[in-house]
Amino acid sequence: MTCSRALAAAAVAVALAVGLPLQAAEGDPAAAVQKKQMCEGCHGKEGYRTAYPTVYKAPKLGGQTPSYLVKALQDYRSGARQHPSMNGIAATLTDQDIVDLAAYYAGGAK
After folding, report:
1. pLDDT digits over 73-92, tens only?
2. How deeply is 50 buried, as exposed, middle or buried, from its count of CB atoms within 10 A (0-12, 13-18, 19+)?
3. How far is CA 75 from the centre of its chain?
4. What is the pTM of this model?
């Protein structure tokens, strides 16, 4: 593990241990490059509309705030926010995956 990844993991652990919101931890946008494939199926296509479970336009992730993205993924993972595809995907994400993806997309990635 690189020094920056170790520091990011430590920041997540400290934030969780002291009860800070996860978005207070630092994410590593470079690490998200390896993790974003599952997002790109829907969110990486301009004007994409999904047919499951209902037809809707997949929202753009690039440029969203990290706190919004972290909260949304946490809510999908916990089931507080319902969408079958997103609940299943978010269930596979670690806390570090979430902050890394939030950092990546908040940086303006499409």
Report:
1. 999 999 999 998 899 999 99
2. middle
3. 11
4. 0.71
